[in-house]
């Protein structure tokens, strides 16, 4: 048996019919679907590498598209957050600074992951045949299995609280 009362209360605080909310959810779902489909397609066909002239150039192009899509996603998320109902009991300095701290930790994980992996390691270079010499085990990979995902999640959670 599933108790849906908690979900019903949660949806009382979220306007799921808001256009901005729907667009944000769609952009959040679309981004990883897009880059995984394109990367797998490239791995099977090597079309992007041929069109761009090299695997590195193709990976950099896909990385640029992913960054652009992430900017769109962040904008949609921000606009959706502005139009959603706010919990008055959480509208205080404690919540704001907690959100800021969570956002800072998330940013630390994302940036340190990027620095450890490099551009091609971050943006699906393995699908282009660009492999790292060895598995990355330095910080933040020494404390988390997926620091980029956890960091991104923390950034959006912190942003939401703020």
Automatic annotation (TrEMBL):
List the molecular function annotations (GO) for this entry. phosphatidyl-N-methylethanolamine N-methyltransferase activity; phosphatidylethanolamine N-methyltransferase activity
Compartments it resides in: Endoplasmic reticulum membrane
What transmembrane ranges does the database entry give? 20-39, 51-69, 100-125
List keywords of the entry alphabetically.
Endoplasmic reticulum, Lipid biosynthesis, Lipid metabolism, Membrane, Methyltransferase, Mitochondrion, Phospholipid biosynthesis, Phospholipid metabolism, S-adenosyl-L-methionine, Transferase, Transmembrane, Transmembrane helix
Q: Name one GO biological process term.
A: methylation
Name the PROSITE patterns on file. Answer: SAM_PEMT_PEM2
Q: Which GO terms of the cellular component aspect does the record hold?
A: endoplasmic reticulum membrane
Q: Which reaction does it catalyse?
A: 1-hexadecanoyl-2-(4Z,7Z,10Z,13Z,16Z,19Z-docosahexaenoyl)-sn-glycero-3-phospho-N,N-dimethylethanolamine + S-adenosyl-L-methionine = 1-hexadecanoyl-2-(4Z,7Z,10Z,13Z,16Z,19Z-docosahexaenoyl)-sn-glycero-3-phosphocholine + S-adenosyl-L-homocysteine + H(+); 1,2-di-(9Z-octadecenoyl)-sn-glycero-3-phosphoethanolamine + S-adenosyl-L-methionine = 1,2-di-(9Z-octadecenoyl)-sn-glycero-3-phospho-N-methylethanolamine + S-adenosyl-L-homocysteine + H(+); 1,2-di-(9Z,12Z,15Z-octadecatrienoyl)-sn-glycero-3-phosphoethanolamine + S-adenosyl-L-methionine = 1,2-di-(9Z,12Z,15Z-octadecatrienoyl)-sn-glycero-3-phospho-N-methylethanolamine + S-adenosyl-L-homocysteine + H(+); 1-hexadecanoyl-2-(4Z,7Z,10Z,13Z,16Z,19Z-docosahexaenoyl)-sn-glycero-3-phospho-N-methylethanolamine + S-adenosyl-L-methionine = 1-hexadecanoyl-2-(4Z,7Z,10Z,13Z,16Z,19Z-docosahexaenoyl)-sn-glycero-3-phospho-N,N-dimethylethanolamine + S-adenosyl-L-homocysteine + H(+)
Q: How does it sit in the membrane?
A: Multi-pass membrane protein
Recorded metabolic or biological pathway in which this protein acts: Lipid metabolism; Phospholipid metabolism; phosphatidylcholine biosynthesis
- Per the UniProt entry, the Enzyme Commission number(s) are 2.1.1.17, 2.1.1.71
Which InterPro entries did the record assign? Answer: PEMT/MFAP, Phopholipid_MeTrfase
Give the top-rank taxon of the lineage listed in the UniProt record for this protein: Eukaryota
Predominant location: endoplasmic reticulum
Which PANTHER family does the entry link to? Answer: PHOSPHATIDYLETHANOLAMINE N-METHYLTRANSFERASE
Descriptive protein name: Phosphatidylethanolamine N-methyltransferase
From which organism does this entry originate? Formicarius rufipectus
């Amino acid at each position: 048996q599933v108790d849906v009362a908690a979900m019903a209360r949660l949806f009382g605080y979220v306007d799921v019919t808001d256009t901005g909310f729907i667009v944000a959810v769609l952009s959040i779902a679309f981004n990883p679907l897009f880059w995984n489909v394109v990367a797998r397609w490239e791995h099977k066909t090597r079309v992007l590498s041929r069109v761009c002239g090299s695997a590195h150039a193709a990976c950099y192009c896909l990385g640029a598209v992913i960054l652009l899509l992430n900017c769109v996603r962040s904008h949609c998320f921000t606009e959706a957050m502005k139009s959603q109902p706010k919990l008055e009991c959480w509208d205080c300095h404690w919540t704001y600074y907690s959100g800021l701290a969570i956002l800072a930790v998330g940013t630390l994980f994302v940036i340190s992951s990027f620095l450890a992996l490099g551009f091609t390691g971050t943006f699906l270079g393995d699908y282009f045949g660009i492999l790292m010499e060895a598995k990355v085990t330095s910080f933040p990979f020494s404390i988390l299995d997926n620091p980029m995902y956890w960091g991104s999640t923390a950034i959006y959670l912190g942003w939401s609280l703020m």
